[in-house]
Design goal:
191 residues; mainly alpha
């Protein structure tokens, strides 16, 4: 037996998009959603446009950061991507956009010797949760987000922050204090 086929109505200026969708899908729900002003509201469309615009801004911010970090951060603050120049705000931006940032550039910024870099490093490290993680797991999670420069002073600063955070999350663990975590982590990294 041959199945009956449905012939779409002729296309005329008076043919609505809902009628065209209705004939091609035979679903009233899809037809209603395709009708302007029905289903997806104007506020949903505005929200979608804002989200898309924000996503494009974030991508532009990533590209700018990978080329010139300090200028990019200033630009992000002006654009409202980062609410202010507080270390916690910058660290939050890094933490949420890490996948698109160049790990080497991020590591260079976090390892910088200026006071703001040190403050951002501390705030960035504090965003991690190492509760109930073994030391090697925590190190991999932390160091997987950026590429640490090989200079001894930078490694020292980064591992000191890591050690403090790891111990704060695991005070009853295997280590006597944050300094013990720092020393072992530093030794592991330098090997």
């Amino acid at each position: 037996e041959e199945l009956p086929t449905q012939t779409p109505p002729p296309l005329t200026p008076s043919t609505s998009s809902a009628a065209l969708v209705m004939t091609s899908t035979s679903s009233p729900a899809v037809a209603a959603a395709a009708t302007p002003g029905f289903g997806v509201g104007d506020s949903d469309l505005d929200l979608f446009r804002k989200q898309k615009q924000h996503k494009l801004l974030i991508e532009e911010a990533r590209q700018k950061f990978n080329l010139a970090p300090r200028k990019a951060l200033e630009w992000c603050i002006k654009q409202g991507i980062i609410p202010n120049d507080a270390p916690e705000s910058i660290a939050s931006f890094f933490f949420s956009t890490t996948p698109g940032l160049d790990k080497r550039v991020l590591g260079d910024y976090l390892g910088g010797s200026k006071p703001i870099n040190k403050q951002v490093l501390k705030a960035y490290t504090d965003r991690f949760n190492f509760t109930n993680m073994e030391l090697d797991e925590a190190l991999r999670a932390f160091l997987g987000s950026f590429l640490m420069p090989g200079e001894g002073g930078v490694v020292d600063r980064v591992m000191e922050n890591f050690g403090a955070r790891y111990y704060r999350d695991n005070p009853n663990g295997r280590f006597a204090d944050a300094d013990a975590v720092y020393k072992l982590s530093f030794a592991i990294i330098m090997l």
